[in-house]
Amino acid sequence: MRAVERSTPDVVVLDASPPARWTTRAAAALQSTATDVGVLLLTDEPTSGIPNALPKWGSFERLTDEIRRVHARELTGALPA
Q1: I need a labelling partner for 46 at 20 to 30 A (CA). Which of 14, 18, 37, 40 fits?
Q2: Global pTM?
Q3: Dihedral angle computed from the Cα positions of residues 52, 24, 81 and 5, in that order, rounded to the nearest 10 degrees
């Protein structure tokens, strides 16, 4: 959180691999800040039950496309900022 507050990124990519509770807390904390940061979640388990999470070991092209979408606030595969 401190790094995000210091550098004010447009997008934060979080590893949502188990235990997911840490990722959930981090995403909630990011969304509760005054910064307008998009959050993109990646997971090892496509069936993890985490909505809109991308496969961690998917294609680099898809990852960069999703980062661009989150940055543009299209929010596919992301948590709203």
Answers
A1: 37
A2: 0.71
A3: -140
What letter represents residue 30's amino acid?
A: L
pLDDT tens for 44-53 read: 876 666 767 8
Q: CA 24 to CA 18: how far, in whole Å?
A: 11
Structural domain harbouring 56: 2-79
pLDDT tens digits, one per residue of 25-73: 887 787 777 567 888 888 887 666 676 788 888 899 999 999 999 888 7
